[in-house]
Amino acid sequence: MKQKGILWSMLAIIMVVMLSIGFVACSSDDDDDSSNGVVGTWSGQEGREYITLTFNSNGSGNWSSRYYDSYSGMETEKGSFTYKMDGQSKGVITIKEYDSYSGYDTEHIYFEINGKNMYLYEKGYGDALAYVLSKE
C-alpha cells in the first residue's frame, strides 16, 4: 500500500515538472514587434531632392521633402503617413494628401530594409528604384 502512495507522489511530481516546463517554454509572440527595425529617421538625396522619413512605433510617421525648383528656388513639403510592415524588412507607406483640384489622393510607396539602407519603390517591391535612404 505504501508503494502505491509513493508511486502516486512521484507521478504527481513528474506531472508538475512537465507542466512547469511546458508553461515556461511557451512564451507569447505578442512582444515581437516587427516594426522595430524601421522605427527612427531615414534620409537620403536623389538628384536635387532631399527626403526625410520618420517612422514611429505606432504605425505612423512624418515625411519632408526639400528640393530645388528653378522657378521658385528651394521648396519644402511636409506631411504625415501611416505604414504597415510586411514581415521583418518590407512594408508599405500610405500617404493621403489633399489636392484642391481632385480632392484626396492616396499614394502607396513600398519599402525594403537591408541593414542601414531603405529602398523605396513606387509600384511594388523590386520595381524601378525611386530612392535609397540611410538610417540616421
General description of the model:
By secondary structure, the protein is of the alpha+beta class. It has one helix at residues 2-25, and strands at 40-46, 49-55, 60-69, 73-85, 90-99, 103-114, 117-121, 129-135. It has one domain: Lipocalin, CATH 2.40.128. It has an eight-stranded antiparallel β-barrel. Mean pLDDT is 81; it is low at 27-33.
Structural class: alpha+beta
CATH class: Mainly Beta
User: Could you say how many structural domains there are in total?
Assistant: 1
Radius of gyration: 26 Å
Q: What's the main sheet like?
A: 8 strands, antiparallel, barrel
Total of helices: 1
The overall pLDDT average reads 81
Beta content:
over 45%
Overall morphology? elongated
Task: Note poorly predicted spans.
Answer: 27-33
Order of secondary-structure elements: HEEEEEEEE
CATH level 3 topology: Lipocalin
